[in-house]
Amino acid sequence: QVQLVESGGGLVKPGESLTLSCQASGFTLDYYGLGWFRQAPGKEREGVSCVHMSNGRTFEAESVKGRFTISRDVAKKMVYLQMDGLKPEDTALYSCAMSIVQRDRCEPDAYDYWGQGTRVTVSS
């Protein structure tokens, strides 16, 4: 079955960087999406950045544009999130998700399978 395993979270200071990784497995598809979502305490889950694995088309939330970069390794079925200039408001549980079709939106209800998440805390 589909499995998504995230890694790379941690505690950092404001302005620092982190890179999250997500390993997908358990399926054979050429056209699918992988994305990063986050949920802060007391808030709803939101889309951060997503990518169409077949062609590299990306989608980013306005709040992270210019600071976060999503990238992919198609052969390895991996997606990465490079997070620079981290702010305290980026503190959240970051989850990787997969959509079985390449939908043109990076929203939680557009994704079908979810990992357990990795926690990112930004604090001085």
Structure description:
The chain has 124 residues and is mainly beta. It is 0% helix and 48% strand. The protein contains no helices and eleven strands. Strands 2, 4, 5, 6, 9, 10 and 11 form a seven-stranded mixed β-sheet that branches. The protein has a four-stranded antiparallel β-sheet with strand order 1-3-8-7, with no helix packed on it. Strand 4 (33-39) and strand 5 form a beta hairpin. The termini are far apart. 34% of the residues are buried.
- Radius of gyration (CA) equals 13 Å
Distance between the termini: 40 Å
How much helical structure, as a percent, in the residues? under 10%
**Poorly predicted regions:** none
SSE-based structural type:
mainly beta
Summary, kept brief:
This protein has about 120 residues and is mainly beta. About 0% of the residues lie in helices and about 50% in strands.
Descriptive key words:
4-stranded antiparallel sheet, 124 residues, mainly beta, 7-stranded mixed sheet, 0% helix
What's the layout of helices and strands?
Elements: E1 3-7, E2 10-12, E3 18-25, E4 33-39, E5 46-52, E6 58-60, E7 68-73, E8 78-83, E9 92-99, E10 113-114, E11 118-122
Parallel strand pairs: 2-11
Antiparallel strand pairs: 1-3, 3-8, 4-5, 4-9, 5-6, 7-8, 9-10, 9-11
